[in-house]
Design goal:
Order of helices and strands: HHHHEHHEEHEEHEEEHEHH
Strand order of the largest sheet: 4-5-9-8-7-6
Largest sheet: 6 strands, antiparallel
Helix content: 40-55%
Distance between the termini: 73 Å
Bound molecules: phenylalanine
Shape: elongated
Radius of gyration: 24 Å
Number of strands: 9
């Protein structure tokens, strides 16, 4: 049996990564993992073995099964990417004067960020889908996944970019910019996160009017929202801060172990923190602008001030 398992281990890996389209990949999934698949059949045969043998083979078989599952998932992501690239290059006569949109794949945006199919957070951010699984990203956090898939720790990145959400009021526009920060290393703690953000705010605004509010993001645990004292009323409460005295500038937290799992990092060894901030929101505070929408209205009197 062990020889058979080892052969499957080698074959499955090379076949999965040679699959050229989603249908071929699905046939492989059925071949290995289906109800009558080779791995499933072997698992059934375990009961014919002696208890010790069963334990030993069971462990090996489960390991192979986990690897096959992981390979299938990874190849699926790669193939989606191929389809997307093809779509992009086949629209060869692109009108470059049109505004560019940042298309992202659902995988990086949701699955890999621990936001499972049935997760309430999928409703939390109203996402614009272009053509599933292609969407307009609603935050820059998928950059975390792209970075960690590519590199080994230690990691320190700052990644600015366009994001899209279905929002429109004094402090929200449907397109805005975020800046994502990610640090992964051994022995990082919440204190390091707070230290970095305090340093940032101190350098931007000269003061330390920062507070952490416990919050929730699927990809961090614990999570917090970062607030700055309202620039307009200095904390007394006004229309801009909706009478709270505080303005939210971003979210942050310690990287969730499931996120590390999705990029094959050892969460026993490494820890990390991440934050995401609205760039216009920071500019608004810095320059005392009371309506975020004015950044995008292209009123020359507004723009000339900078
Ligand atoms: N991506 C989150 C948002 O846009 C912010 C965030 C980034 C939270 C990194 C935690 C860690 O709302």
């Amino acid at each position: 049996m062990i020889e058979q398992i080892n052969q499957i281990r080698v074959e499955a890996h090379s076949q999965i990564f040679s699959a050229l389209d989603p249908d071929a990949l699905d046939r492989l999934r059925v071949h290995y993992m289906g109800k009558k698949g080779v791995l499933t059949t072997l698992l059934h045969q375990l009961k014919e073995l002696t208890p010790e043998k069963r334990k030993e083979m069971g462990a090996v078989l489960n390991e192979v099964k986990t690897n096959v599952e992981r390979d299938l998932k990874q190849r699926q992501t790669e193939l989606k990417r191929v389809v997307l690239d093809k779509e992009i290059s086949s629209s060869g006569s692109a009108d470059v004067s049109l505004p560019g949109h940042f298309a992202e794949l659902e995988f990086y945006h949701l699955e890999a960020l621990n936001t499972t199919e049935d997760h309430p957070a999928r409703d939390m951010q109203d996402t614009f889908y272009i053509n599933p699984p292609v969407l307009l990203r609603s935050h820059t956090s998928p950059v975390q996944i792209r970075t960690m898939k590519d590199k080994k720790p230690p990691i320190q990145i700052i990644a600015p970019g366009k994001v899209y959400r279905s929002d429109y009021d004094l402090t929200h526009t449907p397109m805005f910019h975020q800046i994502e920060g990610l640090m992964v290393d051994e022995n990082l703690s919440l204190a390091d996160l707070k230290g970095v953000l305090n340093y940032l705010i101190k350098n931007l605004f000269g003061t330390k009017t920062l507070r952490f509010r416990p919050s929730f993001f699927p990809f961090t645990e614990p999570s917090a929202e970062v607030d700055m004292q309202c620039i307009q009323c200095k904390g007394k409460g006004c229309r801009l801060c909706k009478s709270t005295g505080w303005l939210e500038i971003g979210g942050c937290g310690m990287v969730h172990p499931n996120v590390f799992k999705s990029v094959n990092y050892d969460s026993e060894k490494y820890s990390g923190f991440a934050f995401g901030m609205g760039i216009e929101r920071i500019a608004m505070l810095k320059y005392g602008i009371d309506d975020l929408r004015s950044f995008f209205e292209n009123d020359i009197r507004m723009l000339e001030q900078f």
